[in-house]
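Quick question, first post here. What does this chain look like in 3D?
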Amino acid sequence: MKLLTVLAMAALALPTRSVAASAVTSVKLQVREGRPVVDGVMVNGHGPYRFMVDTGATLNTIDPKLAQSIGIMATFHTQLTSSTGVTPASGSEGLEVRLGPVTAGDQVFLFTGMEAVQKLSSDIQGVLGQVFLSQFDYLLDVRAGRMEFGAEELDGKGVRVPFQTVQGRPVIATSLGPLVLDSGAHAMVRFGIEATQATAELVTMSGTTRVGMVYSTLAIDGRTLWRGDAVAVPHAAEAGTGGLLPVSLFRTVYVSNSEHYIVLH
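> Answer (accepted):
Ran it through. Tokens below.
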């Protein structure tokens, strides 16, 4: 039985943040089963730690044992929603995150959900979500293994599309409906679709559910970019989105938060 992991996100509004960033700069990127992972993350001056980069997560996540060891205490309690249900969660606000030369203040971290992340790799200590990522323009270069921060002149390759923000995450219009750009997703996921192939398990922060597979064709801005089997979740899991679009389908993904567009190549 194939095990698929998709991270859920918290239904919280993103706080006001102050950000300090340099010009274009890059950090080394590892790709583990299609998910980008970076080293060198500092939290409130502690670290360096290894975190996964998850464009489909609203907030950051940190291993609760690590948080306790560096003196990060819970300052709020909330509910996590996902395709499998709702689960209680706690977290902390007002933290600072630094990755290489880029820094973001007033960061929010959850202490829940690391079990799903550590199924991928036990040495991952947290997740960088949109509360951090949305402060920068950045390139995820899956093939070259780098993440580059800062505005960048592109060479005209790829498909450039605008994005909307739904629960703090980038959502783009596609032939399969509005999809969340999700670097934490292992595979293409479609909500409200009945499966045509064998079932599997979908694992999220709030539990597991039985899903199936359905052959799909993805087109964006009139260009066919992918064909293959997508995970079919039979119920409409999230309002305003029709599924999850994994970054691993592309060589590079450039996100311009300053001008609100994405380039997929």
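The first helix runs from residue 64 to 69.
The longest strand covers residues 85-99.
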